[in-house]
Structures are given as C-alpha cells and as structure tokens.
Amino acid sequence: MTDDELDQVDQNRRHFLSIATGVTGAVGVGFVAWPFLSSLKPSARAQALGAPVEVAVGAMQPGEMVRVIWRGKVVYVLKRSEEMLASLEQNLGSLRDPDSEVAEQQPDYAVNATRSLKPEFLVVEGICTHLGCAPLEDFEVRPAEEWNGGFFCPCHGSKFDLAGRVWQGVPAPTNLVVPPHRFVRDDLILIGQDTGAA
Ligand code: FES
User: Fold this and answer.
1) Summary count for the chain: helices (H), strands (E)
2) 70 has which bridge partners?
3) Among 45, 87, 152, 157, which one is most buried in terms of CB atoms within 10 A?
4) More confident residue, 12 or 184
C-alpha cells in the first residue's frame, strides 16, 4: 500500500469512530431518560410532565386540608366549615386585597367573597407570595389576636386568611395564587385545567 493509500485508510477509520461515538452518546441519553419516566407510577409520571391533577374530595371533612403536587408546586385544597366561611366576612379591614383586585393572583371565577368555585372548597398554591416559603395552616381561632384561622408563613411572618388573602403590614405583597381548576364532579376537582376536555 502506498503512503497516500495508508493516509486514506486512517482518515476513514477516524470518521467511522467519530460517528460511532455520536450514536452511542445519543442512545445513552435515551436509556437514561426512559427508565426515569417509566419507573414512575402513572400519576407521578403525569405530574412530572405537568398534567392536570385530580383530587378526590368526596370524603373530606369540614376543616380538613390535603396537599397535592401540580407542576412541581404544592397546592392546598381546604374544605372550609360553616364557621370558617362565616369568618371570611370579618376583619376585612385587616386585609391588603380583600376583593381580589390583583388580577394575576386568581382566575376570574375566583374573584368573589370566598375566592373559589364552590364556597366550601379553597384551592390555593401553598407558596408564600413574599419569597416562596410554604405557609403553614393555622386553623385555631384566637379572638385576642383577631385571628380567625388561616395560613402563617414562618419565614418572615406573613399571614393569610382562610381564603388565602394577605394581611396588611406583612412582607408578602399579594394574596396566595388560586391555580386554574374545575369540578369534574361534585366530589372530584381537576387542578391545572379549568375548561376543555379532562
Ligand atoms: S417567604 Fe413568606 S414571609 Fe417571607
């Protein structure tokens, strides 16, 4: 074989190796991603992809709250009691935005006295509107503190009432966010979608 022929063989070999490495790399990514998704249960897989999340509320008792994850965010679903609902009328003067006038904080259908589709069910993101901590539920009524129950953020002391409305004089600037949601049935809420097919 001449020197020119040897050079050509060398170049062909290098070209083959670079293609083979690229193919291995692409297959490798597929093998990493697929086991991750396929190892999740269907509901977890849907959550990872940001799909709407169903919440069965038929067995919930008044005063009970559940947490679900939607798009990586915690969402609180609280079934409010008659007393809790009655308390929403009180202390309106202590709230920064009692009428939900900051439009980005809720869909239009939650601009009402209870910030909800059905008065008894509150659906809000469990993310403080100051710097994103998780507010804690505190449903104990303490008249001496003018506290009718609500959510307290331990990071810097922000307070929200039982409709997720922020108190005046705290670091959080706005009410808790009401995510898009709808009732599929009386006992089933779909979070992440308000109209269209389930
Ligand atoms: S993050 Fe909630 S008060 Fe600062």
Assistant:
1) 3, 9
2) 73
3) 87
4) 184
